[in-house]
């Protein structure tokens, strides 16, 4: 009797897991199927029907060219690279002085950053827009870059947590050798922070790659489109060509999939650290 | 440029504290505090965002928000997302719990359940447009299961539209909650489970008396964040429906009022109301979590 009950629980467990996995994958998989179908095939078959030719990439070419996805990727890469490099530098610098020096106002500084995270970005967008305008940054890549750089307490937090585990005697012995604080930061602290830097890069990178709101609002110029806004443009004009839209969706997703498979371990750590405030 | 290493450590400290905090502080003031200040200022004006002088109109904008039903009705939409969060967290907690113990293909299931959270918001919007289309995935599956009678026009029926959109939102964010819970549960020492097994505890007892208490704070935090999350919904409904058919959320409306109808004053007042709710929720959360200690 006991084993019977135990088995039933195990069966239920696996059924629920398989259902959960199906639910997570199904919506994406059907989009993948549709992206490989020809227009006529798409019109005559249901979404669950497998594509006839698994190597029909015509829709991908069309989506890539018509949607000017290359431009989207280029702009995204530029914005991601500059934002991440900047956020890593400023975040680690902030964390370094907050963790290593006790100075008047350090608590207030920390508090100011914390308080700022409580303000949801979407609420202040209307006023932020005016500031970007006044700085003459509207419709430039600097608008999103500055905003991604601006409010990053999560990076500071991750770095500070990590700095706690780096012994201060390292700093002290370097000081005995006459190293300046800059040398200590640049030569000792920053290299030792590299696991935390990977985490920050992933968390920020995913957020920036996926962000729609900021580029949509601040860079409507089509030469500045990023992956999100390029994809959004398929709405409307391609209403009757879902197989092309589906290919565009896949084009936007594939980089994420590759990054996820390659960096799985770091991603799990990164999200666990980044989200527990 | 004088060499840093020639300076005394005391002076170096002052210099480095100043230099290292300069950029972050300037950015913080420009993009966090100045907008809040400006937002309050605009909220008392009838400014259209372009004209040189702003006209102060007192609390008129706030009166409009709280008296005109078309402005207040959007909060009803938030309720759908708010309730959906409970389903989302229930599922996340369930999957996190079973995947904390021995399961075959554990890492595969973990990866699959988490993956949707990493996807582009616009892509998710499109994926679910495809999913809910009249001849789309959901209706086809229902047909296949012999439940053809349940087929619906999911995004055209005002009764169902917000439920459908909230479902897409659950699909998107469940993995995030899942991974946080998983992290919290994995920090529980295995000796506690072993000790409880000696005392004859089964899985349910362990869940109820070990897991739940140890992740209580994260659970509470997530529950309260659900409120601000529900009010801040933007991407999925904007991409999928543009806010039509009664699916407009507070943020969609704010963006429309500000950038489509150029009523910056009114939009700012709406944002102040939104910020007010979030601050209130945050204070509530602090109080609740403090009581726990």
From TrEMBL, chain A:
Q: Which Pfam families match?
A: BPD_transp_1
Gene3D superfamilies for this protein:
MetI-like (1.10.3720.10)
Tell me the protein family, please: Belongs to the binding-protein-dependent transport system permease family.
Q: Where does the chain cross the membrane?
A: 12-34, 77-99, 111-133, 145-163, 184-209, 242-263
- Is the Transmembrane keyword given for this protein? yes
The entry's keywords: Cell membrane, Membrane, Transmembrane, Transmembrane helix, Transport
Domain ABC transmembrane type-1 residue range list: 73-263
Q: What is this protein called?
A: Carbohydrate ABC transporter permease
- Indicate where this protein resides in the cell: Cell membrane
Transport among keywords: yes
The record's annotation in InterPro entries points to: MetI-like, MetI-like_sf
This protein's membrane topology, according to the annotation, is: Multi-pass membrane protein
Q: What organism is this sequence from?
A: Paenibacillus rhizoplanae
State the taxonomy lineage. Answer: Bacteria, Bacillati, Bacillota, Bacilli, Bacillales
